[in-house]
């Protein structure tokens, strides 16, 4: 018994982690496109999508999972090396991902610079 069930694979058939894929950028893709802001950043371990965490106003990392089925994210915060699996709702382990592993250390948290409202703390989820 190996647990594999035909037809139950992810939409793109991937294992959830593609370690060689570089991150999409230094900030949340959707927030940068729409003028939003984020608290912490998460990195899709399958396609490199950078999205904002569940404390952020728009929660784009979770939305990315819901839209694509990519099940595993890694922290994109400097120094953090944890992975999270949406399917199990638990932290998990993962391989070394393609650099850069995290957003630039000088990038402000929350970010991006200039788009964060003064009362951001009261806007967190
Ligand atoms: Zn976002
Ligand atoms: Zn993805």
Protein described:
This protein has a domain at 14-98: 2-Layer Sandwich (Herpes Virus-1), CATH 3.30.40. The protein is 12% helix and 14% strand. The protein has helices at 29-34, 60-68, and strands spanning 41-44, 50-52, 72-75, 83-85, 90-92. 30% of the residues are buried. Mean pLDDT is 91; it is low at 3-14. The chain binds zinc ion (2 copies).
Descriptive key words:
alpha+beta, 12% helix, single chain, Herpes Virus-1, binds zinc ion, 2 helices, 125 residues, disordered N terminus, five-stranded antiparallel β-sheet, 5 strands
How is the main sheet built? 5 strands, antiparallel
Main CATH class of the domain at 14-98: Alpha Beta
Helix content range of the residues, please? 10-25%
Shape: globular
Strand arrangement, largest sheet?
2-1-3-4-5
The CATH architecture category of the domain at 14-98 equals 2-Layer Sandwich
Strand content: 5-15%
N→C terminal distance? 41 Å
Number of helices: 2
Oligomer: single chain
CATH superfamily of the domain at 14-98: Zinc/RING finger domain, C3HC4 (zinc finger)
Bound compounds? zinc ion
Point out poorly predicted stretches: 3-14
CATH topology of the domain at 14-98: Herpes Virus-1
Give me the strand/helix succession. HEEHEEE
Report Rg.
15 Å
